[in-house]
Amino acid sequence: MPASPAGAPHIKAAADSAADFLVRELHRYPGQVTIIAAGPLTNLALAVRLDPKFSSLAKELVFMGGSFNPRPSNNAFAAEYANAPRREFNMRWDPEAASMVLHEPWRKITQVPIDPTTKTFFTADMRERIARGSAPFAKYIGKFGRSYPMWDELAVAAWLDPSIVTAGKQLLVDVDTSFTAGYGDTLSWSIGEGPGLGEKPVQVVLDIDLPKFEALTMDLLSRRAAGH
Question: Which residues contact 88 (CB under 8 A, 6 or more apart)?
Fold first, then answer.
C-alpha cells in the first residue's frame, strides 16, 4: 500500500478495544454521554454484548445511517439510491450489529439517514474558504479535502443544533438480516404497526434547513482553536 500523501499518524492506538473504551467511559459518566456513530455500528454491538447495562447508561445515541426514501440530487452519489432506496453503506456493512443496537433500550435514539443528506455537498468553494481560516486543520482541508455529501457532518450538526431539523418522524426501525437481496436494507414501521420483535422507536431526521446547516458548519470549521 503506498504511503498517504497526507502523511502517517504519529500517535499510537490505545491498548484496549473501542468497545472496552466505550463501556468504561459510560460507567465513568452514567447518563451524561451522547454517542455519535458515524459509521457501521459494530463497536456498539460489541459494547452491548460486553455489558448489558451499556445502552441504558448512555444519555442518547445519534447515528448516521439507513435510508428511507431519499430524493436524488445532482451529484455522483445519487444514482445508488435510484433502484435501492432502502440501502445504505453503514447499515449494510454490518446488518447484524445494526439490528442488535437498534433493539437496545436507549433513553433516546436519533437517526440521520441518507434522506436529508442528499442535498448537502462539501463544495470546492467551502474547502477554499476554510483553507483561508485560522483553524488548525485549515491548510490540510485546503490541500487534501474532497467533495462529498455531508453525511457525518449533518449528524453532528443535528445534535449540536436541533433547530436545523425541519422535518422528522418517530418510527420503529430495524435492519434486514435475512440472506436475501434485501440484506442490510432499512426496515421501518409506524408506531404500533411493527411486527412486535423487539423493535424500538427512533426519532428519524427527514429534512433540514440547508442554509442554516451550511452556515453552522462553516463557522465551526473556520474557528481558531481554543487558546490560540
Answer: 65, 66, 67, 113, 114, 184, 186
Cβ density class 72-91: b for 16+ within 10 Å, e for less:
eeeeeeeebbeeebbbbebb
| Prediction pTM value | 0.92
Vertex 197: Cα angle to 168 and 203 (nearest 5):
15
pLDDT of residue 225: 63
Note the pLDDT of residue 196.
94
pLDDT at 227 over 60: no
Question: In the prediction, which pLDDT does 68 show?
Answer: 96
Burial of 153 per CB tally in 10 Å (0-12, 13-18, 19+): buried
12 vs 10: CA distance, rounded Å: 7
Report how far residue 153's alpha carbon sits from residue 167's, in angstroms, rounded to the nearest whole number: 18
